[in-house]
Amino acid sequence: MTAKAAAMGAGAAAAIRVHDLNYTYPDGTAALEHVSFEIEKGESVALVGPNGAGKSTLLLHLNGILHSKTSRGAVEILGEPINPKKVHKMPKKIGIVFQDPDDMLFMPLLADDVAFGPINLGIEKDEVKRQVKDSLLRVGLAGYETRVSHHLSGGEKKRAAIATVLSMDPEIIAMDEPTANLDPKSREELIEILRTLKDEGKTLIIITHDVNAIPELADRVIVLEKTVIADGTTREVFADSDMLVAAGLDVPTIMQFFEVLQAFGYPCDVLPLSIDGAVKNLTETIENGSGHLHLHIHKHTHTEVGAVRGKYQHHRTAANCPK
Amino acid sequence: MISEIDRYAGISSPIHRWDPRFRLISIFALIFSVMLLYNLQLVMIGMIFAIILTCISKIPLSFVLSRMKLVFIFVIPFFIIIPFTVIGDGVEIASFGGITLSYRGIEYVKFAAMIVLKALTAVMLIFPMVGTSRMDITIKALEGLHMPNKLVQMFAFTYRYIFVLDDEFTRMDRSLTSRGFKRQGNLYTLTTISKAIAMLFVNSYERADRVFYAMRSKGYSGTVATLHEFHTRWQDWVNTAVVVGFAVLLQVAATSDTFSAARGFL
């Protein structure tokens, strides 16, 4: 548990507090075992883990859709334990964006889908209409009210699904792989939307396999594999590459690249996680080196490069690995 | 892809403008009235009225007829079954095994025609009834008519999940075809299809679950969420009077001697 989370654990109500959550699928397979973590208000957390690690299952526990005897009282949202009988009251607090937008878009027109949540919350009609317009605008789908969700593109559907949650204005937004299956432009647009939400101070919990997007989106990373195997700041978690690789995960490409650069003699204590970080790092290093960057090859260079690459390649072919 | 019954909900016609609550009740009454008839002529009059209503609703007849094809396939066997299964002491024409064809049976072709027409009339009336407004509005209208919430939800989800099933089947079918599967009249085809259908149910069940989860996550608690509001005008009452009046008239006529069931068949 991070120092931050531990510090506030005792006092103020956390946005999400999960304590010893267990869940077993009806067929007897354990999905979640002793999962515990806390997320503070305004925090933005990436939830990573291999396929089948129970990430989506965990998400469905956060508003009480999935629950079992063993999970009773294990999840608290904004200081209140979840009552599975009052799931329909939860959207004010936590909105969930499902992995497959087709599961979320089921009304005849997009505007009906976006209005679905606020209407259920009993919001007044004019306000609902305003919310619909506003939510669509925020995800870059202004004027899409009368479109049929069936005919939208994959990227538009993902954004539409987010709009259907934004319209309920929840304090916490949980998303299941928002950037998956998108073309680079749509992915970039989606990251931008998530970043805006983060800047607005929403509490975000984002399931993702997109490690390159994490540094931009999350301050903290929780690694889940049935149970929480790591929980810390983005940098802390990515620094533990052995643990990540063992869990079948990856670190951002930029980070790997700078590790390779280190083998070529690049002086770098803290590996940058994103392109922005890389630019900053390079600028500083070059300025310190009085306008120059010095790289060289010594006799161990290629062994070191091989070691760095090998570290992340246990699950891939080593064909391109220079020896 | 199954095209939805409310595909032509967007066009404008007197039936479309009719308050869905009134429309549902009126046409439902008419369907009942036609169903209770036992006279071919009266059923034919009902059929003509149904055609008129459909025409007024401006739903393309081709769309209606293509949907009715399936119903027709279901009811057409009556023409064969009924003449052979009439119990009575008519003159026998032929007999093979336990099946006899009598003159009485031939007369009963008329009876079969009546059953078929009744079925077709009822199905045709469904189009002006629910095809003229969006499904969610129809469902809200049912709620407005104080239909028990459980029934409204069953109706809503049945409708919703037809498309889930269809989607899943389309996907599965594509994946089978793309791997070289071709439907033939052999055991292999049958086993493959039956396995696919089993999988279809599992997949659809899971998908239906996810859709339901998503709805619950958005605060669904059983009531229909749509911004549509019903406004009743005097025209709604006039329409209702005409359709319900016609339904009653059919029943009144049925009790008169001219169109009595007895004159028809017995």
Distance between the termini of chain B: 46 Å
Low-confidence regions of chain B = none
Please tell me how large the radius of gyration of chain A is.
22 Å
Share of helix among residues of chain A? 25-40%
Low-confidence stretches of chain A: 1-11, 317-323
Mind explaining what this structure looks like?
The complex is a heterodimer of chains A (323) and B (266). With 323 residues, chain A is an alpha/beta fold. Chain A is built from 13 helices and 10 strands. Chain A has helices spanning 3-9, 55-61, 101-104, 110-120, 125-138, 154-166, 184-199, 214-217, 234-239, 241-246, 253-263, 275-288, 301-311; strands at residues 16-24, 30-39, 44-48, 75-77, 80-81, 94-97, 172-176, 203-207, 220-225, 227-233. Mean pLDDT of chain A is 87; it is low at 1-11 and 317-323. Chain B has 266 residues and is mainly alpha-helical. Chain B has 12 helices and 2 strands. A two-stranded antiparallel ribbon of chain B has the order 1-2. The longest helix of chain B has 31 residues, at 187-217. Classes of the chains: A alpha/beta (323), B mainly alpha (266). The interface between A and B is medium-sized, with 31 and 22 residues.
Topology of helices and strands:
The complex is a heterodimer of chains A (323) and B (266).
Chain A lengths: L2 H7 L6 E9 L5 E10 L4 E5 L6 H7 L13 E3 L2 E2 L12 E4 L3 H4 L5 H11 L4 H14 L15 H13 L5 E5 L7 H16 L3 E5 L6 H4 L2 E6 L1 E7 H6 L1 H6 L6 H11 L11 H14 L12 H11 L12
Parallel strand pairs in A: 3-8, 3-9, 6-7, 7-8
Antiparallel strand pairs in A: 1-2, 1-4, 4-5, 9-10
Chain B lengths: L13 H4 L2 H16 L4 H17 L4 H15 L2 H8 L6 E5 L2 E4 H5 L1 H22 L4 H10 L4 H30 L8 H31 L16 H22 L5 H4 L2
Antiparallel strand pairs in B: 1-2
Helix pairs in contact in B: 2-7, 2-11, 3-7, 4-7, 5-7, 8-9, 9-10
Brief account:
The complex is a heterodimer of chains A (323) and B (266). Helices cover 38% and strands 17% of the residues of chain A.
Question: Which descriptors apply to this entry?
Answer:
heterodimer; A: 323 residues; alpha/beta; six-stranded mixed β-sheet; four-stranded antiparallel β-sheet; 17% strand; disordered C terminus; B: 266 residues; mainly alpha; 69% helix
